[in-house]
Amino acid sequence: EALVLVAQDTTSLNYSTHPHTQGLGPIGTQSEKVRGLMVHDTLAFTAQGIPLGLLNLQCWARDGIGSRDERHSKPIEDKESFKWIESYQAVSAVQARARKTQIVVMADREADIHEVFAAQATTPRGAQLLIRAERSRNRQVVGEDETHASLWCTLSQQALLGTREILIPPSEKRAARQATLEVRSAKVTLKPPQRSAHLEPVAVWAVLAQEINPPAEIEGLEWMLLTTVPVKHKEDAFERLNWYARRWGIEVYHRILKSGCRVEARQLEQAHRLLNCLAIDLVV
After folding, report:
1. Which end of the chain has fewer CB atoms surrounding its CB within 10 Å, N or C?
2. Pair 161, 138: CB distance under 8 Å
3. d(C-alpha 32, C-alpha 167), whole Å
């Protein structure tokens, strides 16, 4: 394949109905008392959305859920969020061997952490990135005069490239619909957040897509995509939107894993046996 799109995502497996299983951990809040396993998988697709298989898989039981301050004080290598970097490194090892294939790693807003972009910038012949930005993180970009501005503010001031239609697949909370998006783009330099001030700024291309005239009582779709793949023309921006839309395939994969393979119905005495069983179900 000339292009392979690789989606990272995390899901939890709830085994609370099996109280005798040993080796599980919390998967919800401390008050919910829900126990199970965490799964972070990395699934490859063709540009047309045909799944090719898994490139990385991480499974673990949490020891506990620490406070927000405790999590922020840890180095990235000791945080659960290191899963994004570990997966990226695994995909980059494949990219180094697949010289004729461009591999683009995609992830949702949870992966919008500066360390991921820094890892890409310092990985020779590494895979490219396409990550949806998290608005609440208030990303700042560095201007030519070294001043800082909001990522959203900067993109909203860019000229309109055009409109694009995207098919939004159905989910438990919504029906499928065709969304019309206004698209803007710019090359920006992301400033590291204060907690990661030791890291260098990174240059990326940002694509802002905002739905116009969404159905009544439905929040319009808005994607702020950050990519290391150049976006020089409107066709490039439209193509990045099409790529990111393929990320929904991994959510479908997780849904089938739970409803079709019924992995959460497995009843085994030890968590490591559940993982062995999961390895078979993932292939199925």
Report:
1. C
2. no
3. 35
CA atoms within a 13 Å half-sphere pointing along the CA-CB vector of 188: 31
| Residues contacting 175, CB < 8 A, separation 6+ | none
Contacts of 239 (CB under 8 A, 6+ apart): none
Q: What are the respective helix, strand and coil percentages of the chain, to the nearest 5?
A: 30, 30, 35
Neighbour count for residue 205 (Cβ, 10 Å): 20
The β-bridge relationship of strands 128-132 and 102-107 is parallel
In the chain, at which residue ranges do the beta strands (DSSP E only) sit? 3-14, 25-26, 35-46, 51-60, 102-107, 128-132, 140-142, 148-150, 162-168, 177-190, 202-211, 222-227
What pLDDT digit, counting tens, does each position of 67-123 carry? 565 556 688 888 999 999 999 999 999 999 999 999 999 999 999 999 999 999 999
- CB-CB neighbours of 33 under 10 Å: 9
Instruction: Give the residue ranges of the chain where pLDDT is below 50.
Output: none
Q: Measured between alpha carbons, how far is 248 from 167 in angstroms, rounded to an integer?
A: 11
C-alpha closest to that of 179 among 143, 145, 217, 218: 218
Task: List the structure tokens of 138.
Answer: 């208030």
**Is the entire prediction scored with pTM above 0.90?**
yes
